[in-house]
């Protein structure tokens, strides 16, 4: 079933869109099934759960931390994490940079935007993104192991298609504005991660080039 769902999604995704399979609350055997179907990009929301899985699975997996990250847990994932998609403050950036230096690893990261109506969702207000990027760029000489790859966001949890599309559109407009502006000389700034199980098709149509799909592929989670 997992392989069938992966094949279905891949058939619908444009070739330039990266599929991250989210494995929160799914076991090792299920992840192996997705791995054997060709998936190498996996997303996890919690550091503790990720740490319980990483040593049980192949080392060529690219792990993406997509949930909120506390600074005191950064040290656990820097030795192996491929990207951190939930950077939403200068303090978190600085801690990841410090740990990346100690680990002698380059770590990709995305800035998380808050575009949803729910106040419970994490992320930066759109107006704060460019100032934070400017501050990060000023400190790059002190953080050579960090690489800003783009933006990540989650839309409001609603069936209102126009509302969701409108939020994705705002994120895409900001992404394009940054790419043509202060990040114009940074070709590595190339990732707009938006779209999950319920709205990934809308996200892709609005310009996403990375989707994070969990239950649509992996099935209902075991809590």
TrEMBL record:
SUPFAM superfamilies: PLP-binding barrel. Belongs to the pyridoxal phosphate-binding protein YggS/PROSC family. Pyridoxal 5'-phosphate (PLP)-binding protein, which is involved in PLP homeostasis. The modification N6-(pyridoxal phosphate)lysine is found at residue 24. InterPro entries: Ala_racemase_N (IPR001608), PLP-binding_barrel (IPR029066), PyrdxlP_homeostasis (IPR011078). This is Pyridoxal phosphate homeostasis protein. Residues 2-221 form the Alanine racemase N-terminal domain.
């Amino acid at each position: 079933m997992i392989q069938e769902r992966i094949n279905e999604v891949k058939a619908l995704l444009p070739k330039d869109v990266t599929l991250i399979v989210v494995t929160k609350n799914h076991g090792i055997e299920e992840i192996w099934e997705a791995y054997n179907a060709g998936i190498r990009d996996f997303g996890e929301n919690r550091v503790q759960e990720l740490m319980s899985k990483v040593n049980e699975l192949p080392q060529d997996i690219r792990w993406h931390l997509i949930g909120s990250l506390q600074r005191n847990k950064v040290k656990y994932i820097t030795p192996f994490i491929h990207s951190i998609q939930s950077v939403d403050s200068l303090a978190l950036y600085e801690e990841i940079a410090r740990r990346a230096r100690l680990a002698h690893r380059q770590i990709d990261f995305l800035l998380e935007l808050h575009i949803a109506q729910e106040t419970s969702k994490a992320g930066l207000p759109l107006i704060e993104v460019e100032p934070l990027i400017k501050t990060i760029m000023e400190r790059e000489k002190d953080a050579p192991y960090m690489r800003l790859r783009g933006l990540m966001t989650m839309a409001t949890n609603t069936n209102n298609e126009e509302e969701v599309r409108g939020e994705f559109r705002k994120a895409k407009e900001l992404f394009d504005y940054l790419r043509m502006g202060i990040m114009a000389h940074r070709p590595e700034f190339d990732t707009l991660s938006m779209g999950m199980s319920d709205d990934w098709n809308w996200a892709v149509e609005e310009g996403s080039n990375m989707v994070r799909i969990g239950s649509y592929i992996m099935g209902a989670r075991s809590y």
